[in-house]
Task: structure prediction
Amino acid sequence: MIAEMLRDPSLVKTKGLINGQWVEGLTTFEVENPSTTQPLARVANLGAEDAQRAVDAAQQAMEQWRSVTAKEKSSLLRRWFDLVMEHQDDLATLMTAEQGKVFSEARGEVAYGASYIEWFAEEAKRIYGDILPATTSDRRSLVIRQPVGVVAAITPWNFPLAMITRKVAPALAAGCSIVLKPAAETPLSALALAELAQRAGIPDGLINVIPGTDAAAIGQVLTSHPLVKKVTFTGSTRVGKILMEQSARGVKRTSMELGGNAPVMVFEDADLDKAVAGVLAVKYRNAGQTCICANRILVQQSIYERFLEKLTAKVSEFVLGDGFDASVTAGPLITGQAVNSVDTLVKDAVGKGAGVCIGGKPANGKGYFYEPTVLRDLTADMRLAKEEVFGPVAPVFSFENEAEAVAMANDTEFGLAAYVFTKDPSRIWRVSERLEYGMVGVNETGISSEMIPFGGVKESGQGREGSKYGLEDYTELKYICMGDIES
Result:
């Protein structure tokens, strides 16, 4: 079992966490390794009643937490960060086992996720208010920031640690408590994080974890409970819209990081080798299962063939397999259904005239693997032109000029991330300003950091995570008017 693979086997938790207590469910569900399809553990299958109890516990815990000094909050978060980094290898092992990503990528995610805890530990001491200019001589006006309240967080399986810390850390820094519903595919990472938070001394009830397979029932509780004041979600646009609709009935604050359909625009004056390297990094990371993955590669016609040749040659070097194998550079998809979804999109494109440069089908053998793929001659009538492909498939389109490239890039309801490769400074400004995306990488695809505001526009969501802006959604502004001031 998975515990035998860890230096600290006690990090493997299979129960939910409510008010500091590890709780059983009426039933359990199985977590499997997508590389091997072998079972890893059985985890408590909590439900709606457990979510109700968790919210009540979170409210009670927050009443005391909100009065804890900023410095104390900062110290506890910092201790949590230290423990996460001390257990980096064990956390990465859990992640590779239940999510499938290559071990080196998993270690990187642990460090990336921990960076949000460190960042918001520091930002906890920088929640400032304002003194406003007086309107009359006998009054003074001031503004303070207070915690928004109990936060409900629903997180995905593709980054099972970092998507949690991006929400939990700012919530705690602001003085909130949180109820977390992790993805059923990857609960072990979430539960291990919670265990380390307990060891760090974060008070009981501030972090509650509800693993379970009935996401709809748990989500209904979290969006309808009157004590929940904010709902934060990372996942599909379809589910995000449902959660927003449910939350609107209670006028809850929401922040949503939803679907993406990221274009990479490669102009004829770009450094072609850097562009190919950038596409490789942003397209095939985590087997193409990231929200800011390149979903449409737009290449100027004059360099189209050269780009395809270079990209295909690099993709041919990928080695598929279990992420624990040091020689492996590409892991599996999360489920068999995910493999089928990717293959359906590829078959649609090929059936409508796309060419396969490499890959193009599920890999043989055990596990949920899809061959790293490059497709050419894509057209607007293919589903890959509009739909997010959550897999290692690079659809390469061509364009004639800048105006056409921008129009193609913006021709989607999504607007999370976009990437541009060009050496022309004027084009950099023109294109970056015209792209309808929340984030733009110029000659760079590694744009994520705890210090930047991560988020999108249009149907890719609302709100920002990370940076100084990432704390704002967890606080409410309160204006206080002080009268009867003697001059």
Observations:
- The chain has a mean pLDDT of 97.
- The two ends are 73 Å apart (CA to CA).
